[in-house]
Amino acid sequence: MLSWPEQVVRVQSLSESGIRAIPSQYIKPLTERPVFEPGSLVHQHVDIPVIDLHNLFCKDPTLHLDTLSRISAACREWGFFQAVNHGVSHELMRRAREVWRDFFNLPLEVKQEYANTPITYEGYGSRLGVEKGAILDWSDYFFLHYLPVSLRNQSKWPEQPSSCREVIVEYGGEVVKLCTRLLKAMSTDLGLEEEYIKNAFGGDNMGACLRVNFYPKCPQPELTLGLSSHSDPGGITILLPDRDVSRLQVFINDDWITVNPVSNSLIVIVGDQIQVVSNAIYKSVEHRVMVNSAKDGVSLAMFFNPKSDLVIEPAKEVVSEERPALYDAMTFDHYRLHMRMKGPCGKARLESLKFNTP
Q1: How many CB atoms lie within 10 A of CB 188?
Q2: HEC secondary structure over 317-353
Q3: Which of 8, 78, 144, 235 has its CA 20 to 30 A from that of 46?
Q4: pLDDT higher than threshold 80 for residue 35
């Protein structure tokens, strides 16, 4: 049975022990360390896309098309955007953050009841990848399946806090509605049938997983990362960011740019499978997460992925003589195995599959 190669250490426990120097297995190589400037907001001048989605849901065709064009530009040029007026209740977002913070503040022995393994990653975890001696990230997490319902196992969801399971269902339901609308918008913009991407991902059997990240305080944040550089292997990610500290960085034009979240926004991230289906018209974005010496943080990432055994390939409508297919067909199960075994590694996995150039 596949298992972790070394004893799992909970980063939160390390942080709360009062250490002043982080263990060597968390120290990143010089080239991977964050550009860390305490108290500063990096790249304030960069106009990161913020899109008001209110008009995406309205019947006025002019306003709808304007919103669609903004989504199109963000997905083609940036690979992500911040969404406001997205339809997810602000109060529910607050409750979701709060209930998960309460979970991570439970005694260790309670959380350990949900300890995960690298077979499915479901449950309470502290590492990605199974390579012995790997350099680790400064974070703990909880991972669970939300869709399809046949994979949803609430017995593996936290019983405490008492409202946790209810909040997961409620928050997940609202985010699924948002994702469905965004996939329709993306399909339309790419010249595909409105339901194309959703159907390519399995329709009602499309996968949805929730990863809740906990980033403990770190005594040497300039030496490590909360989550190493990677692009999301799935289709689309909807991230509820940490409210108090700007942690997310995206790699744009050969530079790491810090994303300062807009109040009550959700961050929409294009994943590798959308890049494949669109034949690289849309770009998945390489990103990473910084940690902080003064404040811990909680974020919720809902991943929407193809059904694991479906073959994903560029849509025929976006392939031509001028722009041949850039990627071979592959099941999502086979594709994501690389990250589950190796852990985060930039966009190396996706780039290794490219066999043509536009």
Answers
A1: 18
A2: HHCCCCCCCCECCEEHHHHHHHHHHHCCEEEHHHHHH
A3: 235
A4: no
